[in-house]
Design a protein that fits this description.
DNA-binding, mainly alpha, 3 strands, 8 helices, homodimer, 3-stranded antiparallel beta sheet, Arc Repressor Mutant, subunit A
Chain lengths: 193, 193
DNA sequence: TACTGCATGTAATCGGTTACATGATTGC
DNA sequence: GCAATCATGTAACCGATTACATGCAGTA
């Protein structure tokens, strides 16, 4: 049930259409909570029915409509309520580690390739997290700028600091995974040679 | 779709009832892939229909039946196929980090409590992963012993080594989270004092 | 004019969660 | 005999994924 709060949080920076939200979720900011676009559109409709967001409709061409969503007062309250509530720990489920528990089955070079893919994938993510932390420190992302514009000067430092802390945390995680994959590769080499 | 493979993997050590599998998933071994018992029972029935597992029924009392599941030859093939296939990266979704991105909203002591909960939760997990890695090295867990009994001596080292590597990886992750929470606590202290 | 990418959805399906039900066994 | 726990499910629901549909805008 966190998608709704991710949406409320992004909308807190300013109004946005479903498509723009979908883009946010896919690339720049909220890689912290992935969501495919059909889910975003349907969740926005649900939030609208619950009056946590409101939509401003504009015509697009002759028939199609564009809907820009913005937070309502109730939506802002809900966002603040959620942020103050302690998050209960998530259930654990990791497909890569599950599979690695059974690496005695495949041939050594298949195992090696799997660790290499794991490493490559987290190296790419690491670059992304680091770049984004950098952008945040420079206060460059559009979303952050809008958010800062709507908040008093005195609060700016905290807004930036916690987001940077999150992205640095993600980077640290990626480094942990890379190190794990490398120890894995050393292990394959030892076992098979 | 990894639950089915987790089940096949556990059953590869030897036949087991749904209840015993549910216990495995809840406590000792496969904390790597959490699953509640209703899902386990239904997935087992599905695996049975697909003939990847077979059930031996025994009476329990006068009406109830106990069903012990075991791998079929097709099930073993599927397990090996899955273990050799490169796992595609999972979609990212983290509620705790999402919330931490918006820690400018709650009061500092609420934020502090949240980081403390995060740390405590991962400290507990760390102890669990470390204990389990220890047990694996000593070849103590029942499941591992059964798995080893059904494999040639020459393969024992690999079976143990990869599982230990997974649990050590999990422990390392937990340490990363603990360190993140502690840097978070330092950050709150700095911001609020 | 056709093609590609932007933009907004609906529908079917599936995996996972929660609540509920029911019988068997064991120890007090 | 009763409570707790072992054991096996069913049903309703919800969040997430995938496939499909449709219209608009710019450009080759």
């Amino acid at each position: 049930m966190s998608l709704r709060h991710a949406l409320l949080a992004v909308l807190d920076a300013g109004p946005m259409t479903g498509y723009e939200l979908a883009k946010q979720f896919d690339q720049s900011a909220s890689q912290i909570w992935h969501a495919p676009h059909p889910q975003i559109y349907t969740e926005l409709r649900k939030l609208e029915r619950e009056e946590l967001v409101a939509a401003d409709e504009q015509l697009r061409g002759t028939k199609a409509v564009k809907r820009a969503y913005r937070l309502t007062a109730a939506g802002e309250r809900e966002l603040r309520r959620w942020a103050s509530e302690v998050e209960e720990p998530q259930r654990f489920r990791d497909a890569a580690y599950l599979k690695a528990s059974y690496f005695e089955y495949p041939e050594p070079d298949v195992v090696r390739r799997q660790f290499e893919v794991h490493r490559a994938c987290h190296e790419e993510q690491l670059r992304r997290w680091e770049r984004h932390a950098e952008l945040l420190r420079a206060r460059e992302p559009e979303l952050l700028r809008k958010r800062l514009a709507g908040a008093p000067e005195s609060g700016h430092e905290a807004i930036v600091a916690y987001k940077v802390h999150v992205y640095e945390g993600m980077a640290e995680r990626a480094r942990t995974e890379i190190a794990w994959a490398e120890r894995g590769l050393a292990l394959v080499a030892k076992m098979s040679g």
